[in-house]
Design goal:
about 160 residues, alpha+beta, Nucleoside Triphosphate Pyrophosphohydrolase, five-stranded mixed β-sheet, 3 helices
Amino acid sequence: MEIDLQKLPLRDGVGIVVLNSRNKVLVAKRIDNPKNFWQMPQGGKDENENYFEAAIRELKEETSITSVTLIREIDDFITYLLPKRLLGIIWRGKFKGQKQKWFIMKFNGSDEEININTAKPEFLEWKWIDIDQLNDAVVDFKKEVYQKVTREIRKVVPN
C-alpha cells in the first residue's frame, strides 16, 4: 500500500532569529546540505514543552548559545512544505513540512560562546550576515518563510 505523502502532518517546530549587537543575524550551513545554503537555528518541538522552551533548547543544542534575551515572539505560525524530492526522506518520512513558531532574540554573549561542534552536530560552519542577505542565503523551499521572518525582523530593527 502506497502512502499518500500529501496527507502527512506538519511537524511542530520553532525558529530562532539571533541578532548580535550590530543587528547581524546568525546563520549556519547544514552538514546534510553543504552547498552554499545557510539557515537560522530551528528544530522540532517536543510534546512536553512550550514553543519558547523548544526554541531555547534547540538554540543550545545547535549552537551552544544560552546568552539571549527575547525581543519578540512572531504572532502567527509560519509553515512550509517540503519539495517532492525530499518528501518521505526528511524526518524519516513522517511529515510533509513544518509549522513553525519564530522568536527574535538578542545575543548577549561573545562569539566565543558559539560552538557548533555539539553532541549531535548539525552545522559545518556559522557566520553573521546582514538582515537583507537572509533571503539569498536560504534553500529554495524556505524562501517564503525567510521573507516573512525578515518582514517581522524589520518591525523591531528598522533599516
